[in-house]
């Protein structure tokens, strides 16, 4: 219908033109023709070509200007057929009609046709040349544009401005500056182009210098010039420059102008001076909708939603435009009030494309992608920002593949992606590790001449860095025309992600002006490399230079302190948070919780309780801390509190609670939570959740059930699950199942050194040295090297590292003497070295000597020598602590009257007063075995603080019963001490599935103040105050 009407209008216009003759004498400036041409021009500007055709038909007289307006109208509507027909029908065409045709083709990207028109022109003026140069510039062909510019017979200021504009749009500021310096004359547009070009690539200082040059050449800034100069001041974060520009605006009478005033207001808000912005806003003589939206956005970004609402309510109702409503809607969405944003969106009768885009972004920011997609699909018109908002929303919410599919759809439609589309797509490629797709996006950016844009260039560096393509990282950086601070920071991160610490440091040292992000990036690189001391020294250097750390800096250092076990440094960092004003920052507090739990400290609970705001990360951090420290009951309380407060647990929450139950021996509770995942919360268990359950069932001695769970899993079991099952076989001495599991691991080809060590340990504990040798031969054949055991301890903010049998320290002799002293003392009090953990077929005495010099024992001895009496000792170890060291630490905690905390590869172990302080579900069997071997009064005194409840719990646990069977047989008549008022030991053992002969059990009641030994059974009445040895 529209096509037919268009053809009709075109034929009428051509028919009317057939009677038209070009004046031969002079141009007739008839008032009637002038008015008609003016009306046609206005209709053309509005895109109302049909109205223009009707007015053209009614004109009794027409001239070239009339026809030129018609051609321009057709060109603006991309109706080039009509343009061509109308142009061809003209008996004589002048320069204007030719130029209109040329411009029409250029606008729709048909640059070849535009050049044909240009070459066919019988005569050309400077406007024609400028139009052709602009056509090449608009289509990104700067080489041809420059060649045409150089060939121009005559140039005006517009010619120079067109070419400079092309270089600025291509971020080629070096070429732009050279051309600018060669200009014979400049107008305000020339200065504006240069300043805007520098601002576009974030070279704010150069932009300001250009403005200063214009001002010093006696050029008075007009309204647009002041606005763009304020943008440069915003980029420099120079409040003094804003004040200078405000003074210039006052002198030139531009301050009262609403556009300039709003730009000053925006400068105050972007420089973080909301107080000055509010004062200036209240004094503005005139405000436009942008003034209101600027203040609303500023309040929103500062988290002051109530102030934003109050300001919005101050807008007179008739002046509440679509823009102000869109700003308020965005403020609601940014602050999590998505329902309020929806209500406001539905209240807008005719939302513009900016409003639709803001709603897409709002839904995406709140994780409501389905809603965002619905808005995107139903919006009447889309622009590049619409596609950018949707692609960005998908990428930021982890839907990386769908984001790339949407970019592909945009490309198939023949539309060019915006810078936002490209950066979001590169972010998606980086997270997927999709190097080849990333290269295609890179090629698309080059085709669009976007690779010089700093945002796109920085995204390319980040993408190649995460994809481990270091050569491409360096190449992109070296070819970037403009390298801003973000570019340097991205390069540092790219090197650090690929463990190229030296290159990262060299890049940091070469930076012209490193900012706080640069310092944070290089500190994080050293933290990632385990060089915490260097990271902390860099932090001190940054403070010395007067730079204020941000939240990410503090978070990185808190992580560093936690990873290194630097408790004192961590406490100092905690104190610094209050000075920096970060005590209420959510993710800083989350990092603080994690740090304290990494120290094995329950201060993480105190931080949690003091927090005014919590998110799901907060709850998960506490649950993970409970898991690492074996705080099963506390984890259950936290989980119940989380549900009571209406916080929905996610898969990480269930992982935390399952790990806590696993390390506390809470099998029944773990099964309940595991079943609740699917049934109550609709969360599908992942491989990690199954691993927790298999580990717990295995430790509980329910190996058959653990195997059944592995075989019935809906997902393919990985090596971690099989390794957990192998560890359970080691605990319960099930060689047959262990060999089956080991074979499965060998077939998977993912065996770690720990797998071979576990199997070798199991064989060694049963004196099957032939099998031990077979495992060693296999290890050698596979080229596998066992990771050496390393322990480290912080003493007065200095890190000391110890290897097994380490004799490289100056204090080795003192450590050796102290260990031998306590070794002898502990043997007298009942400590029996567990030589099952020595993997060599040597004499018993040699095995005991090897056990003595494990790295954690050396670190403990050094800690005792170096730290004040009674001071807790925190030791880190890269491998799991062996059973003998575990027992040794319990004895030492009593002998030295210290709390000893060891953090190994899996968890924390807290030793205090001769037993595992937080949870001993894993090692209570060994403790009871040790008690059962006591044959002396001194031994009983050492464990006098062990409560009956723990001992009873030990027997009641089914896996403990399995562990006690060989102990009872080896020990003969067991030496077990119990309080006189205790429950029957026989009933306890029966519940534990242990059935010793009754004559082997002798329970003797002692008097309240005496200790008795009858038939090798030791008893005393006051466990809290046992008699002296």
From TrEMBL:
Pfam families: DYW_deaminase, E_motif, PPR, PPR_2. Keywords: Repeat. PROSITE patterns: PPR. It comes from the Eukaryota. InterPro entries: DYW_dom, E_motif, PPR_At4g14850-like_plant, PPR_rpt, TPR-like_helical_dom_sf. Residues 830-915 form the DYW domain. GO terms for biological process: RNA modification; system development. One of its GO terms (molecular function) is zinc ion binding. Gene3D superfamilies: Tetratricopeptide repeat domain (1.25.40.10). PPR repeats lie at residues 94-124, 125-159, 257-291, 352-382, 383-417, 484-514, 515-549, 615-649. Belongs to the PPR family. PCMP-H subfamily. This is DYW domain-containing protein. It comes from Carnegiea gigantea.
């Amino acid at each position: 219908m529209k096509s037919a009407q268009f053809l009709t209008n075109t034929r009428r216009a051509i028919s009317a033109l057939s009677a038209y003759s070009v004046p031969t004498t002079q141009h007739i400036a008839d008032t009637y023709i002038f008015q008609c041409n003016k009306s046609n021009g206005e209709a053309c500007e509005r895109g109302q070509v049909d109205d223009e055709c009707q007015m053209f038909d009614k004109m009794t007289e027409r001239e070239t200007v009339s026809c030129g307006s018609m051609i321009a109208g057709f060109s603006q509507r991309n109706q080039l057929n009509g343009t061509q027909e109308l142009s061809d029908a003209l008996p004589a065409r002048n320069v204007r009609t030719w130029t209109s045709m040329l411009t029409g083709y250029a606008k729709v990207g048909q640059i070849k046709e535009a050049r044909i028109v240009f070459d066919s022109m019988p005569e050309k003026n400077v406007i024609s040349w400028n139009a052709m140069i602009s056509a090449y510039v608009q289509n990104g062909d700067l080489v041809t544009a420059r060649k045409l510019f150089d060939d121009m017979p005559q140039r005006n200021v517009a010619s120079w401005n067109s070419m400079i504009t092309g270089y600025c749009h291509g971020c080629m500021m070096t070429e732009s500056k050279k051309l600018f310096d060669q200009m014979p004359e400049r107008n305000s547009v020339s200065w504006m182009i240069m300043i805007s070009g520098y601002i576009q690539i974030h070279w704010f200082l150069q932009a300001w210098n250009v403005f200063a040059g214009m001002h010093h050449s006696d050029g008075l800034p007009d309204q647009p010039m002041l606005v763009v100069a304020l943008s440069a001041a915003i980029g420099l974060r120079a409040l003094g420059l804003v004040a200078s520009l405000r003074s210039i605006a006052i002198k030139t009478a531009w301050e009262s102008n609403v556009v300039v005033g709003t730009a000053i207001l925006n400068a105050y808000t972007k420089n973080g001076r909301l107080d000055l912005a509010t004062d200036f806003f209240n004094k503005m003589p005139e405000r436009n909708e942008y003034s209101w939206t600027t203040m609303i956005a500023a309040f929103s970004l500062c988290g002051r939603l109530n102030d934003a609402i109050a300001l919005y309510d101050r807008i007179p109702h008739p002046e509440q435009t679509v823009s102000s409503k869109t700003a308020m809607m965005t403020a609601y969405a940014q602050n999590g009030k998505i329902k309020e944003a929806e209500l406001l969106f539905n209240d807008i009768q005719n939302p513009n494309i900016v409003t639709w885009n803001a709603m897409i972004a709002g839904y995406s920011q709140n994780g409501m992608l389905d809603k965002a997609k619905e808005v995107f699909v139903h919006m009447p018109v889309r622009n590049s920002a619409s596609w950018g908002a949707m692609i960005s929303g998908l990428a930021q919410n982890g839907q990386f593949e769908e984001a790339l599919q949407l970019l592909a759809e945009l490309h198939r439609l023949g539309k060019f992606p915006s810078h936002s589309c490209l950066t979001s797509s590169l972010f998606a490629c980086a997270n997927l590790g999709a190097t080849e797709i990333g290269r295609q996006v890179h090629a698309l950016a080059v085709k669009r001449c976007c690779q010089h844009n700093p945002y796109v260039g920085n995204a390319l560096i980040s993408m190649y860095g995460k994809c481990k393509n270091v050569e491409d990282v360096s190449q992109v950086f070296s070819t970037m025309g403009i390298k801003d601070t973000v570019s340097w920071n991205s390069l540092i991160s790219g090197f650090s992600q690929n463990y190229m610490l030296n290159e990262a440091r060299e890049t940091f040292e070469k930076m012209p002006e490193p900012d706080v992000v640069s310092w944070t990036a290089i500190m994080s690189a050293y933290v990632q490399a385990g060089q915490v001391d260097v990271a902390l020294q860099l932090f001190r250097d940054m403070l010395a230079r007067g730079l204020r750390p941000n939240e990410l800096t503090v978070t990185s250092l808190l992580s560093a302190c936690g990873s290194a076990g630097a408790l004192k440094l961590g406490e100092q960092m905690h104190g610094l948070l209050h000075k920096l004003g970060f005590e209420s920052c959510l993710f800083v507090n989350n990092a603080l919780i994690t740090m304290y739990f990494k120290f094995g400290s329950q201060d993480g609970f105190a931080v949690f309780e003091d927090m005014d705001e919590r998110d799901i990360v907060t709850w998960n951090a506490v649950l993970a801390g409970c898991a690492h420290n074996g705080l099963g009951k506390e984890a259950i309380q936290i989980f119940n509190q989380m549900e009571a407060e209406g916080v929905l647990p996610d898969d990480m929450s269930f992982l935390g609670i399952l790990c806590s139950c696993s390390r506390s021996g809470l099998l029944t509770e773990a099964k309940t939570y595991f079943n609740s995942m699917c049934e109550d919360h609709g969360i599908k268990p992942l491989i990690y959740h199954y691993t927790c359950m298999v580990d717990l069932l295995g430790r509980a001695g329910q190996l058959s059930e653990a195997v059944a769970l592995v075989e019935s899993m809906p997902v393919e079991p990985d090596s971690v699950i099989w390794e957990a099952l192998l560890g359970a076989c080691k605990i319960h001495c099930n060689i047959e199942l262990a060999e089956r599991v080991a074979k499965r691991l060998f077939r998977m080809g993912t065996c770690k050194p720990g797998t071979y060590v576990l199997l070798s340990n199991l064989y060694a504990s049963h004196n099957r040295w032939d099998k031990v040798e077979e495992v060693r031969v296999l290890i050698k054949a596979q080229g596998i090297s066992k990771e050496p055991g390393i322990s480290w301890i912080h003493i007065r903010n200095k890190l000391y590292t110890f290897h097994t049998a380490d004799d490289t320290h100056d204090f080795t002799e003192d450590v050796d003497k102290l260990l031998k002293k306590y070794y002898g003392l502990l043997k007298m009090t009942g400590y029996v070295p567990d030589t099952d953990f020595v993997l060599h077929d040597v004499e018993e005495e040699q095995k005991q000597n090897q056990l003595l010099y494990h790295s954690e024992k050396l670190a403990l001895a050094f800690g005792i020598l170096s730290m004040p009496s009674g001071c807790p000792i925190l030791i880190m170890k890269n491998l799991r602590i062996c059973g003998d060291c575990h027992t040794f630490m319990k004895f030492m905690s009593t002998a030295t009257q210290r709390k000893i905390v060891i953090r190994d590869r899996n968890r924390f172990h807290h030793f205090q007063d001769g037993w595992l302080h937080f949870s001993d579900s894993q090692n209570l069997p060994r403790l009871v075995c040790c008690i059962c071997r006591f044959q002396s009064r001194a031994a009983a005194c050492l464990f006098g603080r062990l409560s009956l409840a723990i001992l009873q719990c030990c027997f009641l646990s089914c896996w403990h019963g399995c562990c006690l069977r060989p102990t009872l047989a080896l020990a003969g008549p067991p030496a077990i001490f119990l309080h006189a008022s205790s429950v029957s030991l026989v009933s306890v053992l029966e519940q534990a599935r242990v059935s010793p002969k009754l004559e082997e059990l002798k329970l003797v009641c002692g008097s309240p103040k005496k200790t008795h030994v009858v038939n090798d059974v030791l008893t005393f009445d006051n466990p809290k105050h046992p008699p002296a040895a």
